[in-house]
Structure formats: structure tokens, C-alpha cells
Amino acid sequence: MKFDFFFKSPTIDSYYEPIWDNIMTIKEFKDMETCPHSKKWHKEGSPLEHTKMVLKNAIWYLSHGGFSEHVPIKGSKCGKVFLLAALFHDIGKPQATIEKNGDYTCPFHGEIGSGIARRLLFDEDIDVREAVCFMVRKHMVMHNLSNYKDPLKIKKELAYFDACFYRDSLVTWDMMCALSLCDEMGSIRFDETFFEKYNRQAKLIDLPYVKCGISYDHPLRMEEYNELFDLCEKKDNDEDPIDVFVMIGMAGSGKSTYIKEHNIDGLPNISGLPVISRDIMRAELGYCKPGEKKILSKEQEDEVSTALTNKMIELAGEGKSFVIDNMNLKLGYRMDYHRLLDPIHKIRWVYIYVEAPSIEENIRRRKDDFGEKTESIVNSMIERFEYPYPWEYDILITQKQ
After folding, report:
1. Domain 242-400: what homologous superfamily?
2. CA–CA distance from 175 to each of 59, 82, 115, 157 (Å)?
3. Order of strands across the sheet with 275-276?
4. Is the separation of the CB atoms in 7 and 82 below 8 Å?
5. How many Å apart are CA 362 and CA 376, to the nearest integer?
6. C-alpha dihedral sign at 266, 270, 274, 275
7. DSSP for 43-85?
8. CA-CA to 224 of 20 to 30 Å: which in 160, 174, 260, 389?
9. Pair type for strands 17-18 and 7-8
């Protein structure tokens, strides 16, 4: 589904309007209608009722401007991202909600909702979809930042938002603050006034600069990332860099085909480079035939991991460019590559994200491997994927086949 499924295009007399008849055909939104909601924070009713109020605020915000010049423009990609984020921000609540101490809470609903949004918006442009997923994933952080006391903790949280301070980003810091404000105004708490909510959220605009010196003119420096995320100092001398191509994508997305068929201007011929992957290592260790997909025991998979690590160290130590053809869906896995290889050789990190033209096609490609469970496996991969952050790579290439 794409933006136009959820919103009517604006006219001279009206701004974007949600198409609730379409929206309510989706199970995840119908579940929001009956999902229990916190009695303390949300006296307005169900998560669906709250979402309608938040979306109404978001539409008003876009039609009247916002905190500063860094706001979405009517009809722009940023405006579409903002409205979709407002619509999807709490879609993870039905899966996350639990009863605790006589009330309801929904831990990690932003993370869960981000995955659901990616699956439902799979047909949307990748940059728009992933910008929406970022806002959904991180929207709860905005409510908590002002309460943090430790400057280092604040800075580490803000590091994930650093792309919001890039001039060409589809998500700006002001957009995150505006979504947070719309979220606040869409919740009824009898113990707080409008002005208390507004003032608390308005202070977020200046928080990055006041607490950490981060602004649109001064995003974080790479050495600060190394310190914040416990990354090894990058090898930085006169030697020529090697290129490490990190393929990213679900099983069946087409990563291996991309390696065989694509070359990238200004970069080595990717099809001529050494390719390492868990599948290749399983075959080299004699656990399966070349090209065969097979999951082994934990002890055997640990052996595969060790062999893969040793091969990466060997190639980097010899100053050779190479390709890592695993799914690499999670940030933690990708950061392990940095920790392993950055101290060995000067590296240019090239991330290549590949996805199938549709979820249905992705499922069809892996039907023989996963059988009846293919749909749930592919959907799970889509939902747990963490899209690369700008500080991870030197070059990012996206390919929807």
C-alpha cells in the first residue's frame, strides 16, 4: 500500500484527509479500536481514537506551519512522511499492550509499530517508507528525553537522530518535535493543561543544542560516534582504502543476483570480488552442497561464524576488497563488522540494500526453502529489519528490483 491508499489528495479548499474506509480494512487498525489503553495517560479512549486526534493535529500543523523553517512543505515527501508517521505511530500497541499494576502499558510499541508500518507500506518509495518507520520507532524517545539527567545518555540517544539535522533529510528534528507535540495534544490527561504540554514539548526544539551542542549547522562528528557506540578507532593513514560491500536484504530479496548483474560507477567490479556468506561457509566446511540452503545446529553455526570472521580478517589484512552476502538486517550485526575490520585496514563501507518488487514475489522466491511457513518468516524479517543509519556507511545504494 502507498500514501494514496490512506489519504485523499489536497484540493483548493481542503488539505489531505484520511480515508478511514480504507484504513479500517486493515486488521492492525481494527485491533486498535478494541485495544485497552492506559487510564492514566489516555482518557480519550482507545488507541484508534487517540490516533484520530493525533492525525487531526498533524493535518492542522502542516496546514499552518510549525516551530521553525525546518518543517514539512505541503505536498512534499516530508509532508507525506509526517502524516503517515502520525497515522502509524501507535499501530504497535495491540501487540505490545500488557496489564501492569492495575493499568495498561505498551513497552516497545514503537519498535513493533515500525515493523508493521514497513510491511504495510512495502509498496511505497523506500526513502519515504523508511523515514516513516524511523519516526514511528523513535517517537516515544521524544517523550522521555527531557527527563534524562545523564548528558552522555542524552547524547547517545540523539546520535540516532543525527540524520534529522542533515539538510536533505526526509525527517527533521522539528518534525520529530512536532509529532511529539501532536501526540501530546491527542491524549487527554486531566492533571495537565494545554500550556504544560505545549511548553514541555516546545523545549525539545532546543534540547540537542543546549545539552549536546547538536544543531542543523553542527551534526555529530564521526569520532563522537566511535566513542558513543564503543567502535574501534578507524584505521586512518596513507594507505588506499579497501571497499567492503555489505549486502542487506531479506532472504529472497535478490542480493546474490544483484552481485552477479550490477556494477557501480566509481567502485570496483562487484561481480569480480571475493564473496563471503554463511551459506558459502557452510558449504566450505562440508555441512551442505554449494548453493544449498541449510540451517545447522548451534555448535555448527558457531563454527560457521568463526570461519566467516577469520575470512573477513584475512581479506582485510591482505588489503583486498570483498562482499559480505548475508541478510545483515540488524544494526548489531553490522556494527560487529566495523569493530572487527576498522582497526585492520582503512575501509570504505558500501551498503547495498536490495528488496524484491513486492512481498508476494519475495515469498514466492523462498517457497521451496520455507514451505508453508514462508509468509510468516518473510514478514518477520521485514518487521525486524533495522534500516541503516547514515553514520554506518560511506555509501548507501538502494535497489528495488
Report:
1. P-loop containing nucleotide triphosphate hydrolases (3.40.50.300)
2. 13, 7, 20, 17
3. 275-276, 322-324, 242-248, 347-355, 395-400
4. no
5. 12
6. positive
7. TT-SHHHHHHHHHHHHHHHHHH--SSSSSPPTTSHHHHHHHHH
8. 174
9. antiparallel
The Cβ-side half-sphere exposure at 28, using a 13 Å CA radius, reads 21
What pLDDT score was predicted for residue 148? 84
Regions in the chain scoring below 50 on pLDDT: 67-68
Partners of 105 in beta bridges:
98
The three grid cell numbers given for residue 373, joined into one nine-digit string: 511457513
Distances (CA, A) of 354 to 67, 133, 228, 325: 36, 17, 29, 11
Return the C-alpha cell found at 218.
553542527
Nearest to 338 by CA among 214, 187, 250, 231: 231
- Measured between alpha carbons, how far is 146 from 155 in angstroms, rounded to an integer? 12
In the block, cell 513493533 appears at: 112
Spatial neighbors of 218 by CB under 8 A, at least 6 apart, are: 165, 209
**Residue 134: all three cell numbers together:** 524511523
Q: Spell out the residues 6+ positions from residue 202 whose beta carbon is closer than 8 angstroms to its own.
A: 67, 177, 181
Rounded Cα gap, residues 49 and 90, in angstroms: 11
Domains of the chain, residue spans = 3-220, 242-400
C-alpha cell at 296: 545447522
Q: Give 113-136 as a DSSP string.
A: HHHHHHHHTTTS-HHHHHHHHHHH
CA-CA distance, 207 to 202, in Å (whole number)?
Answer: 9
For residue 308, give the amino acid letter: L
Radius of gyration of the chain (CA): 23
pLDDT, tens digit (0-9, with 9 covering 90-100), for 26-59? 999 999 999 988 877 777 889 999 999 999 988 8
Q: What is the pLDDT of residue 75?
A: 55
* pLDDT of 259: 86
255/277 Cα distance (integer angstroms): 11
Q: Which residues contact 269 (CB under 8 A, 6 or more apart)?
A: 263
Report angle CA 170, 356, 243 to the nearest 5 degrees.
70
The whole-angstrom separation of Cα 16 and Cα 59 is 7
**CA angle centred on 165, ends 164 and 168, rounded to 5°:** 80
Angle formed by the axes of helices 374-384 and 109-120, nearest 10°: 120
